[in-house]
Amino acid sequence: MFRRTAIVLVILLIGAAGLSAQKRPFTFEDMMALKRVGEPVPSPDGKWVAFTAVDVNLEENTRTPHIWMVPIAGGPERQITQGKGEQRPRWSPDGKHFLYIMEEQVHVLAFDTGSGKVSGGRQVTKISTGADGALWSPDGENILFVSEVYPDCADEACNKARDEEKSKSKVKALLFTRLLYRHWNRYSEGKRSHLFVVPAEGGTPRDLTPGDYDAPPFSLGGPDGYAFSPDGQEVCFASNHDPVEATSTNNDLFLVPLAGGTPKQITSNKASDSSPQYSPDGKWIAYLAQVRPGYESDRFRLMLYERATGKITNLTEKFDAWVGTFAWAPESTGLAFVAEDKGEQPIYSVGLNAPGIEEMIRGHFDDLTITAQAGIIATRVSVERPNEVYQVACGHGKCGAVALTHMNDALFAQVHTSPLEPFWFVGAENKKVQGFIVRPPNFDVTRKYPVKFLIHGGPQGAWGDSWSYRWNPELFAADGYVVVMINPRGSTGYGQRFIDDINGDWGGRVFQDLMLGLNYAERKYPFIDKTRECALGASYGGYMVNWIEGHTHRFQCLVSHDGMFNAESAWGSTEELWFNEWEFRGTPWANPLMYRKWSPHRAAASFKTPMLVIHGQRDYRLDVSEGLQLFTTLQRRGVPSKMLYFPDEGHWVLKPQNGRLWYKTVNEWVDQHLKK
Questions:
Q1: Comparing C-alpha atoms, which of 618, 614, 617 is closest to residue 630?
Q2: How far is it, in rounded angstroms, from Cα 423 to Cα 383?
Q3: Above 80 in pLDDT, residue 652?
Q4: How would you label 353-371 residue by residue, b for 16+ Cβ within 10 Å and e otherwise?
Q5: Does 532 share its domain with 632?
Q6: Is 266 part of any domain?
Q7: Edge-to-edge strand order for the sheet containing 97-102?
Q8: Same domain for 501 and 616
């Protein structure tokens, strides 16, 4: 199905033990010095890969992306843009230009495929509401992009005047008439995301999706919610037209001609349909779908829409895992995709004529693209290294991956990192559950080490062999700790039933899995000091830390970041109501016992473990009032406690200097209680 080229894998055998002893512990400053690689896109001729790398300036408190280029045949990476922040490179069909986003506008550069040099930069859009998510049409004539506009404005002049009026007004009040008036970290202010098309040479953009709905809907990442047909004359996009978006996950797919007109709905599933991609031959549209309305953690299936007949086929009906990013084979004979599996994210393939899932290569991959000349290009990550760009090719029944970029090799030659070590144990109801440990630098098996027990968020998420800049196991281990992580019930990568076991049972099987997993780690690893353990978690992990506070006293300290404390008040102050109403099986008045049963605040009489509370003012998933209630309760109960409050952060701490303060405060709190 895929182009198969030979790969020569050169393995350098180095005295790793000797080198490791000379390396220093990993620091926060090291993490900020890393170049954060993403968005790889191969050129149409298969000779180059454009990608972004984010530079963090800790002193200036900035994160700035630039575009880099690397030859697929081998050679050094080279930064090719030097602006104020350039991202999302996309090639023109002939490979002679690529577009990118800078300062919320679409720009284009000419590219010499022989020398790899760029020239002739120009700005394509000057729209006052900004442009993002740009995509070149397959015929090279047009560029599609997303902009947030007022749905009752018919043109650019109206949008610009409305924004200027708001900016000049002394009154900053907002009037709400429906739910989902704020989302994640900002208020909507009456705008909608719409798809616009503009000639590639520049001109006046046209709104392809006018109306009072988002097209595409909000997304935290992953594949685009829209795509061009191969002839460049049609756009497929996702949109949610349900009247109460705050309780709905019902995204559907629509088609609209490039010339404009009324969109045609092509899916009727009451759950989410998203991420369309046309096959290269134009016969099919592949997309991701869930089947249970209102449940954002139902697994994503890879679906196929036949354009000629409207027939829909589930390509992964018997595949019990979430499909992530995916890409078409150049011959339109099948697709490759990634899916989580037991702490990894392998690449799989599926054919159209003989459906059946084949695992191609293990590891933790993402950002798949496929070209006839270069095969599969993807990013690969591990707990020891952040993203790099890889080429994956297959031959003689096996697939191999070769790194095309080495953006952070120099730094990792100086610092110590430890591999992820998996283990399995028997959890609640005799279910098999996976956990991991990461050992500290200069590890000595004869010593006893304190433990940082990390609890992941979601709750439908997972720990695994991947890198994180927000909760980094290597950084937590670097100052002399064993890091223990468990994937309890609700975690992804172990089948849908394993995920569903948390629904309506937030403090039940999950809590048991976590405690049984820690018990097992204490028995299996004699170097763990079970008298010196601290539990830390964010989001659902913060909820579970709050639950732990009232249900066990085995830990010497706790850290709760953006966690739910009062289940009923959290329902009233969140924005995505579908989440709470699914997890707690209804509203607080329809099912009050469920909300009260699993609310950590009801066990406040048992609080006694010292706790650090962290919360961001702009977190609208779990409102800051949850953190304030928790800290007030701890103080009134006389429990040793502190609260770290960020007025300028949302659900995640993203600003570099805030991140430095976060790690400093957390590590000092843990040291205070475990390294006396």
A1: 614
A2: 16
A3: yes
A4: eebebeebbebbbbbbbbb
A5: yes
A6: no
A7: 86-91, 97-102, 105-111, 118-123
A8: yes
CA distance 513 to 432: 10
The residues facing 433 across adjacent strands are 425
Using CA atoms, how far apart are residues 494 and 73, in angstroms rounded to an integer? Answer: 37
Q: Nearest CA to 209 among 262, 165, 171?
A: 262
- Amino acid letter at 336? A
**Does the pLDDT at position 20 exceed 60?**
no
Judge whether 333 and 327 are in contact, CB under 8 Å. no
Query: How many domains are contained in the chain?
Result: 2
Structure tokens at 64: 């700035």
Reading the block at residue 409, the tokens are 């090799």
Which residue, among 495, 476, 492, has the nearest Cα to 484 in the 3D structure? Answer: 476
CA 90 to CA 104: how far, in whole Å? 15
Distances (CA, A) of 87 to 83, 309, 427, 483: 10, 38, 44, 34
Residue 640 half-sphere exposure, CB side, CA atoms within 13 Å? Answer: 9
CA distance 124 to 143: 9
Q: Residue 194: phi, psi to the nearest 5?
A: -125, 155
Q: What are the helix (H) ranges across 65-146?
A: none
Note the pTM of the prediction, 2 decimals: 0.95
For the record, the structure tokens of 385 come out as 């290294």
Percent over 90 (pLDDT), the chain: 94
Mean pLDDT value across the chain: 95
- The residue among 29, 23, 80, 81 whose CA lies nearest residue 56 is 29
CATH of the domain at 444: 3.40.50.1820
* 505, 609: one domain: yes
- Both structure tokens of 669: 């709190």
Span of 13-27, 46-60, 97-111, 320-334 with lowest mean pLDDT: 13-27
The closest of 288, 306, 322, 365 to 460, measured between CA atoms, is 322
- 348 and 482 assigned to the same domain: no
Residue 105 DSSP SS3: strand
> Which of 352, 384, 417 is where one domain is finished?
417
* 617 Cβ contact list (under 8 Å, min separation 6): 624, 645, 646, 647, 648, 649
| One domain, residues 503 and 580 | yes
Q: What is the pLDDT of residues 453-466, one digit of tens each?
A: 999 999 999 999 99
Confidence of residue 355 (pLDDT cuts 50, 70, 90): low
Q: Which residues pair with 65 in a beta bridge?
A: 54
CA 578 – CA 81 distance, rounded (Å): 42
The answer to whether the CB of 99 falls within 8 A of the CB of 90 is yes
Nearest-angstrom CA–CA distance, 214 and 93: 28
- The token duo for 365 is 């991959």
Here the tokens at position 139 are 């015929």
Q: Which domain holds residue 441?
A: 433-674
**Residues 399 and 447 reside in one and the same domain:** no
Domain final residue pick, 384, 417, 450: 417
Condensed to tens digits (0 to 9), the pLDDT of residues 542-589 reads 999 999 999 999 999 999 999 999 999 999 999 999 999 999 999 999
CA atoms within a 13 Å half-sphere pointing along the CA-CB vector of 534: 26
